[in-house]
Amino acid sequence: KGATGDGTVVPTPLMRERQHAQHEEEGRLRFVVVSNDGLDSSLIRLIDLKNIFAKQLPKMPKEYIVRLVLDRQHTSLACVFEGEVVGGITYRRHAAQAFAEIAFCAVSAVHQVRGYGTRLMNQLKEHCKREGIHFLLTYADNHAIGYFRKQGFQKQVTMKRERWLGYIKDYDGGTLMECAIDTTVDYLKIRFVAEEQQKAIRARLDARQAKEPAVHLSYTPRKGGIAPGVEQTSWVATKLACKL
């Protein structure tokens, strides 16, 4: 963990992940799959998501946001903390092509920089694994490219062009990015696994150093100051002369 100049502890990404996992166990943090099924509870969550998207994505036309969020072909994953929708992802699943297109992804301003965006994306990947989705595609603007890169997206699309061309909407000024979903990875525990791997590596290094103390050889000056192999080259030492 880190600390600021006044001694305030700055949570690390791993600390946030532990906190999110604890909040999920306690029921304070939930990730709810919601679509326009006509239920009042679903519509309320979708409207909350629409408001977050409209505020956090000011360049996106509000009418377009409403149309996609409420579209029955789109699904949303809402991040709900203590009963309040604090963020979400709206996407469209293309089952036959085994990929999903992310239309919107945002977290409310007061809940940003708390790791909700990462947890949200990891929850979506786990949901996609259960749904048989192997890839995620999205058009990211310049401000979102950094976020998507951290979530495992890349600009190089590995899917065959005919698999996705014509299925997703092209956005002017956006960069198409892809994320391959690995079914062997538990995305909700990936940071914890990495931490255990680091501990194991450190333990092995410490054990090796304890058995084999470091030996520092003394330095032996070379004769004439010429490094091996230099004499076989055309290099000639520069001689400087100064006349007063």
Give your account of this protein's structure.
Helix 2 (40-56) runs antiparallel to helix 3 (62-70). By secondary structure, the chain is α+β, with helices and mostly antiparallel strands. It is elongated. The model has no long low-confidence stretch (mean pLDDT 86). The strands form 2 sheets. A 6-stranded mixed β-sheet has the order 3-4-5-6-7-8, with helices on both faces. It starts with a strand and ends in a 33-residue tail after the last helix. The protein has helices at residues 13-26, 40-56, 62-70, 116-131, 145-150, 161-164, 190-211; strands at 2-3, 9-10, 29-34, 74-81, 84-94, 99-107, 135-140, 175-180. Strand 5 and strand 6 form a beta hairpin. The chain contains 7 helices and 8 strands, in the order ββαβααβββαβααβα. The chain has one domain: Gcn5-related N-acetyltransferase (GNAT) (Aminopeptidase, 3-Layer(aba) Sandwich).
